[in-house]
Amino acid sequence: MDDTDVATIENVGPVYRLLHQLGFRTTKTVWPVGCPEGSRNFSSSQTLDEPAYVEFVQGLAAQGFEIAFHGATMESSERARTIAALERFRSLFGGPPRVYASHSYNRENLYWGVERLDVPILRALYARTNGQPPDWYQGTRPGSPWWWGDVAQETLTYVRNLSFDAINLTPINPSMPYRDPRRPLAPWWFSASDAEDVGEFNRLIDEAAQDRLEREGGVSIVATHLGKGFARDGRVDPTTERLLTRLAAKGGWFVPVGELLDWLRERRTEEFLPAAEWRAMQWRWARDLVTRRIRWKFR
Asked: Which pTM was predicted?
């Protein structure tokens, strides 16, 4: 699942050509509208305000790639802009997005920040270290300028929550996808493996990890940013190309996130997440978050 941060035709186009060639059908998020106020960290990103980028993304959709929603645009969007973005998405792709992932510190994010967690000590620690006020994220608060939870509930199917430092999600979240009665404005939740950039991606799907995933018969949804170092000067990173080529040869089922989650959901006997599984997921997420931050610091 490719979050669209800093993505352009130039820096992700070669990766999608390789994915298509190898038989992968994956999920690409988009920002349907531009960000006229500017963005310190994401201003290089292309959005569906640009005709050439629209043509590129529609071409991916025609090839079987899933197009998903990463919020209206790269910075916080009030309700009207979010609704306008969803309408543009419908007009360009023939229907609403089924899959959504919150972006960065956008204030309209759904159940984000401490609202992702229920374990009291983890909520307290996260609030102290995250650097945002407790009430920063307001996408689920009626009356807030950033409120759109009612629209999300009517529009979306799957929303991404916790991400982990492991390729196989089955031992971590065997009940995926799941409903959460504490967070009802997201119809179904799912987990992902985290790979911030090309280096983290290559580490996550290295040869040993691929073989382990195959041996365990597991499920993997990798959340990454294909715009972060995956291609330079029109050439895909050689290690990434080698690893993806090796993975494709294994004969796995390489489908978009929504299709995979539909398949898993059909096999669920219960909709909700067992309490013990949810507690273990939160502690594992916290541990993996610390591990990733340490590794990132000393790279």
From this structure: 0.97
